[in-house]
Amino acid sequence: MRILVAMSGGVDSSVVAALLKRQGHEVIGATLQLYDHSGPAKPGACCAGRDIMDARMVAERIGFPHYVIDAESRFRESVIESFADAYARGETPVPCVACNQGVKFTDLLNMARDLGCEAMATGHYVRRVEGAEGVEMHRPVDRDRDQSWFLFATTREQLEFLRFPLGEMPDKAHVRALAEELGLDVATKRDSQDICFVTNGSYTGLVEKMRPEIQGPGDIVDEKGNVLGRHEGIARYTVGQSRRLGDIHTGTGERQMVTAIDVPSRRIIVGPRQTLTSDESRRTVHLRDMNWLIDAPAEGVRCGVQLRAREGLRQAFVRPLEGNRAEVQLEDPALPAPGQACVMYEGDRVLGGGFILADR
Amino acid sequence: MVQQAAAMQQAPVYLDANATEPLRPAARDAMLAGLDQVGNPASVHAAGRKARIMLEEARRQIAASFGREADSCVFTSGGTEADTLALHAFGHAEGRPILMGATEHDAIRRAVPEAGIIPVDGQGVIDRTALEEMLEAHEAPLVCIMAANNETGVHAPLREVAALCRRHGAFLHVDAVQAAGRMREQDDFLLALKDGSLEGASLALSAHKMGGPKGSGVLLLPEDRPLSPLLPGGGQERGRRGGTPALASHMGMAAALEESRRQDWNILAVLRDELEAVMVQAGAIIMGHGVARLPNTVSAVLPGVPAQMQLMALDIEGYCVSAGSACSSGKVSRSHVLEAMGQGEAAGQAIRVSLPWNVVADDVRAFGRAYGLMAQRFAERGLLKKTSSCGRSQ
């Protein structure tokens, strides 16, 4: 079939394209140009300028057409601007989710349909399973590379059209070996990491440049408002973190953690970690913009939930609410960061997910 | 089945001549002779003298084609260098303010970002009233006008422009890169050359737009005169352009130019008109339809459909066409030419089909069918907007 492959220029998506071509499909490669590459390219992040050339070389070598899609303005609006907006609200956004949701699985996917493609493939590590009641999303075979948490916002309609061949790969070494076997120059290229559009190593620098109003130092206070110390800018903090609190831990005699970020007063509110993590009142989490990959369970569903990109599952009961929201009752207390994703799992299967709302 | 497999392996149909023309066999032969000639044209010895004679013959041929003396022909690395040399020598070095048409090529536009921009009308034709006002407001400026536009093929009214420039003491530089190798009797460019309108103007030429090799160009001066070089180097080209001349390439250019003058471009014009009718039928709007244009160029807007989508869809089917401007990464941007023509949204929805000198009529007809099918699919997908106009730009 005619299938569009979203290519970043890295090993993973190159292998996907080459594999599909070898299987006899009519492959069309596409690389999104997400930002201006006139500055120094950042090696190791996806879609830097040289990566576009890498993708082109792979396509030319394997023998299929490849196109560069200008998604600059759309990426700036739907990903970078909302990333900065979220920090300006005191949240901790997940730009990769926004990018997958908008630029990749909406715009590029529509383009694939317009070009008469029957499917679109990416190099994501997640499994697409054809279940009895429709298509399902599962964690990949290689758990170390699991990207299911970042893909929870994929709709069932999108999932129907998508293919993730790497979800079945046992490990990264296997993928690299396959790249060698397929004669791909990118076989030894380093993996992408971090936020791709942050080019000078500091996302706070970018956020503060885009939203100067949140720039500048402020107080670190306890729940009662007592000033415990100073900080260099609220964009450096995430609810739940204990880093960057200076000598406050020793000053108070207890390990502290961030419980809230108050944007108007530019205050970071902290509390003792021990007390907070056992605070029984901190068991309810509210979610917005829910995406269900099962029929929304009116009665609620008992499942595992994952509150951060790299974190284990917590047991919970999730109940859908009006307005595309949901309420999560955690078995054990937690301090999830507003703006992050809460993704529900049943075994390997992704049931759905939403974005964490600030609780006050 | 066998037939289908054979069809799939067919070479793509090349309809992007304005990007670069296929190499003409005569140019190839001339180049081979040039490549085999050892010797630097600047050397004193026998081999050098032989190379020099070949270079000078190419120079004479090219200059004569435009009714000029051989010594007015300065070889360069291509059209961009020829344009840049003109801007430098007649503009900056002589202290002239610079005016340029709004639809000029980037070779001119980007070289002088601060230049005065002469507007064009909705068809892409230079606004003579505006030009005259600007000529009155500037002291003896350098005026840069392209003979034919690379995207739309629209010809400039060069005789009128030249007369205005002469009247106001302005120096005229004509970017003839697209027009020089595709001249017809009725074209304003050729008429202006013949009636002496361009006697005082410099012309930029490019070999590969005529069916010669990439990497060779010419700046034709109004007369044999010294000028301030961009590359002083070893004083080659009589001190006007340093560096050892690319003998084989320049010979290829002379041969290509000669061939292009022998070509009957009306045959291409008929094919082009036929194709435009098919494209209009499919929902396209033709840019610059109402005015004199190159015989091989179609600039077609498919309302609502991004140019990038059209390029991809047609490339997948095996047709090489292009859009306004493609950056080095291959990303397709909006057309500054159509923007200057006041076409708004359409500037992002136009493709350029430019028939090469050796185009095959059946290929053009097959392209027309593929274009129609593409437009039909985009219409079914809800991308293509129906237009109320008759398919022609105003």
Automatic annotation (TrEMBL), chain A:
EC category name: transferase
Highest taxon in the source lineage: Bacteria
Disulfide bonds: 99-196
Record bears the keyword Oxidoreductase: no
Record localization: Cytoplasm
GO MF: tRNA-uridine 2-sulfurtransferase activity
Positions of ATP binding: 6-13, 32, 123
Entry annotated with the keyword Repeat: no
Pfam families listed in its UniProt record: tRNA_Me_trans (PF03054), tRNA_Me_trans_C (PF20258), tRNA_Me_trans_M (PF20259)
Annotated stretches, region: Interaction with tRNA: 145-147
Enzyme Commission number, as recorded: 2.8.1.13
UniProt catalytic activity: S-sulfanyl-L-cysteinyl-[protein] + uridine(34) in tRNA + AH2 + ATP = 2-thiouridine(34) in tRNA + L-cysteinyl-[protein] + A + AMP + diphosphate + H(+)
Keywords: ATP-binding, Cytoplasm, Disulfide bond, Nucleotide-binding, RNA-binding, Transferase, tRNA processing, tRNA-binding
Domain tRNA-specific 2-thiouridylase MnmA-like central per the UniProt entry, residue ranges: 216-271
Site (Interaction with tRNA): 124, 340
Record-annotated tRNA-specific 2-thiouridylase MnmA-like C-terminal domain positions: 283-356
First-listed, main subcellular location of the protein, grouped into a coarse class: cytoplasm
Active site residues of this protein: 99, 196
Function according to Swiss-Prot or TrEMBL: Catalyzes the 2-thiolation of uridine at the wobble position (U34) of tRNA, leading to the formation of s(2)U34.
UniProt similarity note: Belongs to the MnmA/TRMU family.
The protein's name: tRNA-specific 2-thiouridylase MnmA
Gene: mnmA
TrEMBL record, chain B:
Any one GO MF annotation of this record: transaminase activity
UniProt cofactor(s): pyridoxal 5'-phosphate
InterPro entries per record: Aminotrans_V_dom, Cysteine_dSase, PyrdxlP-dep_Trfase, PyrdxlP-dep_Trfase_major, PyrdxlP-dep_Trfase_small
Keywords attached to this entry: Aminotransferase, Iron, Iron-sulfur, Metal-binding, Pyridoxal phosphate, Transferase
Stored Pfam families: Aminotran_5
Catalytic activity: (sulfur carrier)-H + L-cysteine = (sulfur carrier)-SH + L-alanine
Residue span(s) of domain Aminotransferase class V: 13-367
Function: Catalyzes the removal of elemental sulfur atoms from cysteine to produce alanine. Seems to participate in the biosynthesis of the nitrogenase metalloclusters by providing the inorganic sulfur required for the Fe-S core formation.
Sequence similarity: Belongs to the class-V pyridoxal-phosphate-dependent aminotransferase family. NifS/IscS subfamily.
Name recorded for this polypeptide: Cysteine desulfurase
